[in-house]
Design goal:
single chain; alpha/beta; 4 helices; five-stranded mixed sheet; 119 residues; Transcription Regulator spoIIAA
Length: 119
């Protein structure tokens, strides 16, 4: 998991993250978010297509969600993108689906954000 893009526009800092979830990457993501200007809204958009393979890492779904909640506490909007059916079902069963915003893809999240800014 790594930050693949970092953009700033319309008083917002958006961090795009892709890849397999690893704890070291989450530390780097937290650090990068902390270094962003405080006068901007911060958003973390995560590609969740690899989340179902958490068991292959030293992490787990619990620690992944825990880290996302810690990030969210710092007034960062977390958007989970591209969740597969298994991961989405797991989040629903654990009642985690209401904690984070979801989008089918980065592109869909971008369209929604543009529509909200235009309104």
């Amino acid at each position: 998991m790594e930050i693949t893009n970092h953009t700033s526009h319309h008083n917002r800092h958006i961090f795009f993250v892709k890849g397999l979830v690893k704890e070291q990457a989450l530390d780097k993501i937290r650090q990068t978010i902390a270094e962003a200007p405080t006068d901007h809204k911060k958003e973390l958009w995560i590609d969740c297509s690899h989340v179902d393979r958490l068991h292959l890492t030293n992490s787990s779904i619990c620690s992944f969600v825990s880290e996302l909640l810690k990030i969210r506490k710092h007034d960062v909007k977390v958007v989970l993108c591209d969740m597969n059916a298994t991961t989405e079902r797991l989040f629903r069963l654990l009642r985690l689906d209401s904690l984070f915003e979801k989008a089918r893809s980065f592109e869909e999240a971008e369209k929604e954000t543009r529509a909200q800014l235009a309104a």
